[in-house]
Design goal:
The chain has 148 residues and is of the alpha+beta class. Among the domains are: 63 residues, no CATH class; 40 residues. The chain contains six helices and five strands, in the order E-E-E-E-H-H-E-H-H-H-H. It has a five-stranded antiparallel beta sheet with strand order 1-2-3-4-5, with no helix packed on it.
């Protein structure tokens, strides 16, 4: 799909060979619009093997919020933002990765917002205590807590 270009003014996709994939239908339950090129045109194209394997032609879906997604992709690719995202990976994602990979918590056991909040609070508290023990040691942590 990276080799296909969307022309917002005409509301069509253009394939690498220059053919226009025109609007076919809207799927509101899936939040997308579908664009397709005629099967005969695709099969006769020299780029056929690169674009699709289907005989009905290449089909592309475009989400309703695709413009926002494109802007976010561009914003993410900027070097200054890469520094921020790298730092976020090291700080914010670490607890979730530890819970999922090391502790095997891949889904919540409780249902409902209140249950999930309670379960996440317990998991976060356990992570924080483990982290404090790693930083100060058991006796150091007990000493610091006793000083409070």
């Amino acid at each position: 799909m990276a080799s296909f270009t969307y022309l917002a003014t005409e509301k069509v996709y253009v394939c690498p060979a220059g053919h226009h994939l025109t609007y076919r239908r809207t799927r509101p339950e899936r939040s997308w619009r579908e664009y397709q090129l005629e099967g005969a045109t695709c099969c006769a194209c020299p780029h056929y093997e690169q674009c699709t394997r289907g005989r009905n032609g290449r089909k592309i879906v475009r989400y309703f919020n695709e413009d926002l997604r494109d802007r976010l992709r561009q914003q993410y690719a900027e070097p200054a933002n890469q520094v921020l995202y790298t730092r976020r990976k090291q700080t914010a994602e670490l607890p979730f990765g530890h819970l999922k990979r090391n502790l095997g918590v891949d889904s919540f056991l409780l249902r409902g917002l209140a249950g999930v909040r309670a379960e996440m609070s317990l998991l976060a508290s356990g992570f924080n205590v483990t982290r404090l023990i790693g930083l100060f040691g058991v006796h150091g942590l007990i000493g610091r807590l006793a000083a409070l």
